[in-house]
Design goal:
mainly beta, 2 strands
């Protein structure tokens, strides 16, 4: 199975899209999300 490589880059909030994987480089109590890493599955 081929390995996938991912590029980590900063994007503006307005540039986030469904299907993107988000990694927040902050402690869990510094943001309102349950986890620091998650996929954007839908447009709320």
């Amino acid at each position: 199975m081929p390995q996938q490589s991912f590029m980590i880059k900063k994007v503006k909030i307005q540039d986030l899209q469904v299907g993107m994987y988000v990694h927040l480089p902050k402690r869990w109590f510094a943001h309102p999300f349950y986890k620091n890493e998650f996929y954007i599955k839908s447009e709320a």
